[in-house]
Amino acid sequence: MSDASGETRDLTMSRAMVSAIAHEMRENDEVFYMGEDVADYGGIFDSTEGLREEFGYDRVMDVPISETAYLGAAVGAAQEGMRPIAELMFVDFFGVAMDQIYNQMAKNTYMSGGNVSVPMVLTAAVGGTYNDAAQHSQTLYGTFAHVPGLKVVVPSTAYEAKGLMHNAIRDDDPVLYMFHKRLMGIGWLPAPDGPKTPVPQTDYTIPFGSADVKRDGDDVTIVTLGLHVHRALEAAADLADDGIDAEVVDLRSLVPLDTDTIVESVEKTGNLVVVDEDYRSYGVTGEIVASVADEALAALDSVERVALPDVPIPYSRPMENEVVPDVDDIAAAVRRTQ
Amino acid sequence: MYENMVTARHYEERLQEEYLEGKQPAFDISAGPIPGELHLAAGQEAAAAGVCQHLRDDDAVTAPHRPHHVAIAKGVDLQRMTAEIFGRQTGLGKGKGGHMHLFDPEVHFACSGIIAEGCPPAAGAGLAAKKRNEDSVAVAYLGEGAIDQGAFLESLNFAAVFDLPVVFVIEDNDWAISMPKERVTDVENGANRADGFEMPGVRVDADDAVEIYEVAGEAIGRARDRNGPTVLEVQVHRRMGHFMGDPQTYRPEADQDAALARDSIERLEADLRDYGVDDETMESIREESHERVEAAIAWAKEQPKPDPADAYEDMFVNPPSGVTDSEPDFDVAGGDD
Ligand SMILES: Cc1ncc(C[n+]2csc(CCOP(=O)(O)OP(=O)(O)O)c2C)c(N)n1
């Protein structure tokens, strides 16, 4: 990690993201931001608040509602050496531009034998927990981590949001930066306490593929990301009252995946609980369990997966609460390992 | 038409009140009796009433994220729609879909919250009618912001090539969330998009229900007579924010004032007076519609909330063996509402 010392201030996750973007835009004229409602609105999730005021419409571009065109245009501009950041307002809208993401952005480097690079960032809001139903609540981590060629990062706090964003913009490959709406600190979607953290004033990078142990523990390893880092920490605090000492690993990136940190933790605790807000089947939880089984099968005493059961996200609160993992679900899974 | 318009307006005023409950002082979208986002269509009623007045139950309508006025004009079951918006078990989608995803197969009404994605299914409904040799038609509603989307343009071509009985209705309210029309398109008249597909494109400039009714009648008649698709753009006004809670800081006050000054309902009232309809008649229509709205809301609020376990049902109408329809095959905790 590059230097992250010096003065800090407490920021919401959205402010931290924006401060990294603004820094990179000041340093490099090739960086620009495109998306719907990113200029005057400042991003529906405050992801670009204040950027248009500083950089103007040329570098903070509101675009027509045509994701294929502007996400594809980001690919094209990136291939010309610019460093676009393109925002997909809700990750759920990926489908209308799937080819540009899945076949162009992700694969052009490989198909060109490494001769073409696509140094762009695709930011997208993810996550449910606010009753917006099946087309506006998905996380879809697995969908994007599944296709080869995309780096996928998921901040859980303001500190991560800034460091990962600096790294994402400087990276020469396409990066999908997936931020959870519930963590941003916006007025109409109150965040839990955790994501607002001290953030260094200076720039610093968090390298991809470096998971962070957010809580040390001896009895069980909880591996998770995004919003569910905070839920896992809360569950760990509850479990501590019952004498169960949980370690919480925040993945921070899915591609690359820091298997070493996970394996090291499981070798210490013997028990693995993977928590994910994405669909259960063919997803993140299965991938992590399989990776640990590959490398440290002997160390595994028990495994639990906590994820979205394989249903679209329902609108009505009792049903959404049922399917989205909460603190009790995580604690119950941990207890089953003991 | 008048009845549909005043019903829609009053309905949304009441939803707004209900929605705000429990959300103040800090606006929390996930608090209060109505879950999720809420996009209201106040100011756009004429687009719904003027077009749907020509439709039968077997004509299909696809609506976007701002659907209530269209649903009301199409004759969607108001009580069950309201129960859906309140997230209740007896709602149209048993509480699974919510306000942006209303489905009422009885009157062939469907919705999607993804921009322009109702256009291809509308073309599909038209295709079905054509293949079966029926004279039903399909109408796809979308906003002026949505007409830049591939799904719309591809559907125009598809409908044109196969001469499908489809009318694409663009509700031009000048704004796509915070983006004013002139900043995202060089085409002032969205109906001109039709030109590239050799189909009629018509625009009604004033949000005038009577004129919309007349022009829509021609378009729908053309479709019913198997003379192919039409694009119809109608000017409407967004009286409120894009969604409840939208602070609209991007919007010039003059624009907001202009939207409020130009009310299609008042305009229709003036027209009706000219036609000799007296104020008492209009008042009684308003009163009846208010009663209907109040009854729907009262009914909806009495309806049971879904059981948490209902979440696992309805994934398939024909659950494959190995998939238990009602219970997950692993432990579930939670459901703490
Ligand atoms: C594919 C897709 N992109 C973006 C959005 C987010 N979004 C929802 S409504 C909206 C604006 C739509 O504007 P318009 O079509 O003019 O309809 P209006 O809201 O004005 O009725 C946007 C960008 C979405 N739902 N789907």
TrEMBL record, chain A:
Its cofactor is thiamine diphosphate. GO terms for molecular function: oxidoreductase activity. Coiled coil: none annotated. Its EC number is 1.2.4.-. It holds the Pfam family Transket_pyr. SMART domains: Transket_pyr (SM00861). InterPro entries: THDP-binding (IPR029061), Transketo_C/PFOR_II (IPR009014), Transketolase-like_Pyr-bd (IPR005475), Transketolase_C (IPR033248). PANTHER family: PYRUVATE DEHYDROGENASE E1 COMPONENT BETA SUBUNIT, PYRUVATE DEHYDROGENASE E1 COMPONENT SUBUNIT BETA. This is Alpha-ketoacid dehydrogenase subunit beta.
UniProtKB/TrEMBL annotation, chain B:
GO terms for molecular function: oxidoreductase activity. Keywords: Oxidoreductase, Thiamine pyrophosphate. Residues 303-337 are annotated as: Disordered. Transmembrane segments: none annotated. Residues 326-337 have a biased composition (Acidic residues). It comes from Halobellus litoreus. InterPro entries: DH_E1 (IPR001017), PDH_E1_Alpha_Subunit (IPR050642), THDP-binding (IPR029061). One of its GO terms (biological process) is sulfur compound biosynthetic process. This is Thiamine pyrophosphate-dependent dehydrogenase E1 component subunit alpha. Residues 31-308 form the Dehydrogenase E1 component domain. The keyword Oxidoreductase applies. Its cofactor is thiamine diphosphate.
